[in-house]
Specification:
Blueprint: E1 6-10, H1 16-26, E2 30-35, H2 41-50, E3 55-59, H3 65-76, E4 83-86, H4 102-108, H5 113-129, E5 132-139, H6 152-170, E6 175-183, E7 185-186, H7 190-197, H8 199-202, E8 209-210, H9 212-225, E9 230-234
Parallel strand pairs: 1-2, 1-4, 2-3, 4-5, 5-6, 6-9, 7-8
Helix pairs in contact: 1-9, 3-5
């Protein structure tokens, strides 16, 4: 397969985002990293370069629609985008589900709308090529009631359903769509670092962590085989 295929990793961080970049980079994809800050881009690019992976880094807050579209257009000009991974998580603090109002509920969907913008930007080119992939990272609250996450569960369920419905709509058009439904602390990620740094406040993460390399390897298998729309990773049990 040609080495000019580009995989865009949106919302890249030191955990799952970088594991996705390494995994798809090993398969011959050129990697385009997108995050809201460029503070760690140098470290990320050196990491990938040490593995022989061709990569670029771009700065865009996914809630800035014009900037996000501009960055995706820039990336796509050089051979198109063969894979888009949407991985940013919500940044809001949850409000108890019994106390949310309409405005709070609506605000949670600021995490979902950029995913739709990403698909709108990259899908036409994939359909023209008759190939491509869309992968999303979502939360376990989309399949299991988790009241402590408040309004965020609404957006989580919406993103999951969006991904599954895209999978069904694109099944016979050459483009794959799938979602990783994640329940647990992803090792090496920023939240994992915060929790492990203050166990008195957050409790011990033992038994509740997930290996990002394992998740990324599963994502690659989903993209390659295209035989399922979802994988659920549950480090909490139940």
């Amino acid at each position: 397969m040609p080495t000019t295929r580009t995989a865009v990793i949106i919302g890249v961080g030191p955990g799952l985002g970088m594991s996705m970049a390494r995994r798809f980079g090993r398969e011959g994809f050129r990697i385009a990293l997108v995050s809201r800050s460029d503070a760690r881009h140098g470290t990320y690019l050196r990491d990938l370069a040490s593995l022989g992976i061709d990569a670029t880094a771009h700065t865009a807050d996914v809630t800035d629609r014009d900037r996000l579209r501009s960055v995706l257009s820039e990336i796509g000009r050089d051979g198109g985008i063969a894979l888009a991974y949407y991985g940013p998580g919500p940044t809001q603090q949850p409000v108890p589900i019994t106390e949310i109002d309409m405005a709070t509920a609506q605000s949670a969907f600021e995490w979902v709308w950029p995913a739709v913008d990403v698909v709108r930007e990259v899908l036409p080119g994939m359909l023209d090529d008759g190939d491509g992939g869309l992968l999303f990272a979502g939360g376990l609250s989309s399949v299991r009631p988790m009241p402590m996450l408040g309004q965020l569960v609404l957006a989580s369920a919406a993103l999951r359903n969006y991904a599954l419905t895209l999978h069904a709509a694109l099944a016979d058009r050459g483009v794959y769509a799938g979602t990783l439904t994640i329940g647990g602390l992803v090792e090496h990620g920023d939240i994992h670092a915060m929790v492990t740094a203050d166990p008195e406040r957050f409790g011990s993460p033992d038994g509740h962590t997930l290996d990002p390399d394992r998740l990324a390897n599963t994502a690659w298998g989903m993209y390659r085989t295209r035989d399922r729309a979802e994988e659920v990773f549950d480090a909490f049990g139940g």
